[in-house]
Amino acid sequence: MKKYKVEEHTADISISASGKTIEELLVNTAEGLLSEFVDIASFKKSDYKSDLCEDKFLIEFIDYENCLIQFLNKIIYLVEVEDKVPVKFNLSFLSKKLEVNCFYLYIGEKDNVKKRNIKAATYYDVKIVKDKVDYKVKVVFDV
Amino acid sequence: MSWRDKIKKVSDYKWVLGKDYKQGMNVPAVVFADDKLMKQMEKEEAVQQLANVACMPGIVKQAVAMPDIHWGYGFPIGGVAAFDMDEGVISPGSVGFDINCGVRLIRSHLSYDDIKDKLDVLLNLLFSEIPSGVGKENRKIRLDSFDVLKQVLKYGSRWAVKNSYGAEEDIINTESFGCMEEADPDKVSSASYKRGINQLGTLGSGNHFLEIQIVDEIYDIGVADAFGLFKDQVVVLLHSGSRGLGHQVCTEYIEVMIRALNKYKIVVPDRQLACAPLKSREGQDYLGAMAGAANFAWANRQCMTHFIRAGFEKVFRSSARDLGMGLVYDVCHNIAKIETHIVEGKERVLCVHRKGATRAFGKGHKELPADYKDIGQPVLVPGDMGRYSYVCVAGEGAEELSFSSSCHGAGRVLSRKAAKKKIHGRDLEKDLNSKGILVRTDSYSGLAEEAPMAYKNVSDIVNVCEGAGIAKKVAKMRPLAVIKG
Q1: ipTM of the assembly?
Q2: Most C-beta atoms within 10 A of its C-beta, which of B84, B143, B304, B434?
Q3: B408 flagged as catalytic
Q4: CA closest to A112 among chain B residues
Q5: What is the pTM of this model?
Q6: Which residues pair with B277 in a beta bridge?
């Protein structure tokens, strides 16, 4: 099964994703977001200002849906404001906290690798469900 | 049961979904539409979202949908809801991420014959002077520090005019005179400041645009004259908002409100509608931050107005004043405001949320500038880049029908993905060129997403507003040149 899929939505962008674990679901949804956000294929070595860098951040959450949306909004902030494009995540849960090790490329002011502005991930109808195999979720992003 | 089976047509332009439709609805949901628009609405779930809004605590009288309503997230785009000051709430998701996204119209003394041979040069100049598109920063306006940005958030258009980006008359012809007094810059995070500090005077992307238009038709000569509009006149319509700063304010305060739901024992059908009592600490903090972002948006549009005027001055070798480039009006369409309204014959102070809806104060309202007091507020309704936009005037019925609110645009009918499947950006540019419309964009993919076919016909929208008594048509404009964000 595909890790994520961009779905139809009248005004915005909707991404459905799946994963065998919550961690995998978070990462796959983030990859879906980044596929709409950044033209990864157009990356050239000259676009980077540095090699892979690492950021750590902590998310305190109420439930997994709240965790997912905060995680996605943090990624939006990293790309929009700090010009960092995450390429790999290591996630570890500790009770109601998520520790994120984010490995990213610093793209400086290379706006041309950004495909669009994404304002935020929304909570609209967000529900993480589990079938026999996978966790699944659908997220609407305001663009 | 679907809302489609429950909604009742009560007049040619009004539909009501009773509060028995769904458990938890505190008031009915009212939709302004004709049969054609209702058929379009039935294809998506915007009315279901409106029913969710009707469940919010302290909502007064009715949840309202304008004829351009379309599927959003949480609160539908084109929705209006008013809340009691004591029992009611304030909700960041019900304002939207682009706080004070809005439209302003700049008039001129020029006619088509004056501009036709200079349009290409003028458009190129404006495209280079006003940053547009993804992540663009403004290198002409560099704010030295967060302290300066705080002044922008505190004073809005007044900051811009004080810093030579406009004239005093611009402030008079801006909704709320370009500044919400409730602004509290200290309630805005450093992350939000960081996201906005380099974006003052920038258009942004998505559906934001700058259009040079020509007045194509006048419907009410008297009102048009009062607004300074005449047939074949060149005008500039600008659509932009609070950029990244507003997005970040909304993002962060939705998190605050989600935690407040539990604290104040509030139940909402959708977390995106998370809210807090208006008078709570969380509610007041958001109001202060939102008003600050709204002021940033007014300053943003005011700064761009300055660069538009400068572009015209350079091309026409005449001052903006001599070119007659005054502001007709500036309206915001994503906002929560404390306003006084008549409900069941009684005057009440309410917190009115408009998300994709325009304030429409009728004649005599105390918040209107003197020149418009006997006429009513201009309501600016942008359409798509291939057809028309409208100037309307607030109707006599708006207060009773919609908490003095009107439509804000055409409303999408195709998804972005579907629009891109139907037309390529470069083909769209050629098509528009063949109709005499010039286009500049730095994203042809983004241009395709905003293709005219992706939108309802704005004429259908304003006709419903006029039929319902919400707003009356004054003038219709068509685009000559478009800068697409």
Answers
A1: 0.92
A2: B304
A3: yes
A4: B134
A5: 0.96
A6: B89
